[in-house]
Amino acid sequence: MHSLMEEYGLGTVQRYMDHIQGNAERSVRRMLHDFSLKRGMEPTDSVSAADYMDDGTRIALTVTIRRGNGPLETSAIFDFSDTDPEVIGNTNAPPAVAASAVIYCLRCLLPASDLPLNQGCLAPVEIITRPGTLLDPSAHAAVVGGNVLTSQRVTDVVLRTFRACAASNGCMGNLAFGDATLGYYETIAGGAGAGPGWNGASGVHTHMTNTRITDPEILETYFPVVLRAFGLRLGSGGQGKPNPNTQTRTRTRTRTRTRTRTRT
Questions:
Q1: Which of 131, 164, 197 is a domain's end point?
Q2: Which GO BP annotation is one of this protein's (predicted)?
Q3: Max CA-CA distance within the chain?
């Protein structure tokens, strides 16, 4: 950034930053406008969807689109108010998690593949959460699982609302182990939802889990473990077509005494 300002000047850099955000805003407005027309919606109309956490907690979203006087005046309200109350466990998620899922999904729904993710994507959008719910918990609620679990399910709900694709595995499944001298953390891949014109995929990272697995040679060299097996867990995708084996399975044996935690 300093190099850019030295070469072009602060004013020029700021103007182009504004241009990038303005382009993102216009792109989102056009996408919302086109979606509304394609769905045969009224000038002000709503679409909604819901899904559930593993404990049955409901995440609900209603998107109200106002077309205004054309694409560049189209806006939307993302209302999560009907989501269930906060839970005793730690899968509560602060409002920032819902906002992150929304901006991610909006960027995914844009046809332009080279548009950088930026705040302009949220300019046409208002996000509403209801205090005391899973997505707007109280100050005393546990939230450590909200970023790795709930965020994925919120993403599924947003994409479902726009009829973009089927749900993915809905969780940043992860494995962690270690002791006082070392620590290891790995996200576990799962299934990716199918969509118009493409099949789902097995054993891949989706949405927020943008990590690669650690090579077995690296794992066994730097950590006191032996990798016994790594592959797809048979039948983990239910009865779906064409491939019901979506979740990965890892079997390891530790050479020293460690503490292990999993979340999936």
A1: 164
A2: glutathione metabolic process
A3: 67
Beta strands in 81-170 (DSSP E): 125-128
3-state secondary structure of 91: coil
Q: How far apart are CA 25 and CA 47, in angstroms?
A: 21
Tell whether 136 and 44 lie within a shared domain: yes
Per-residue pLDDT tens digits for 129-140? 999 999 999 999
Whole-angstrom distance, CA of residue 22 vs CA of residue 24: 5
Tell me the C-alpha distance between 219 and 5, whole Å: 42
Edge-to-edge strand ranges of the sheet holding 75-79: 44-52, 58-66, 75-79, 125-128
Task: Tell whether 152 and 204 lie within a shared domain.
Answer: no
Establish if 4 belongs to a structural domain: no
pTM score, two decimals?
0.86
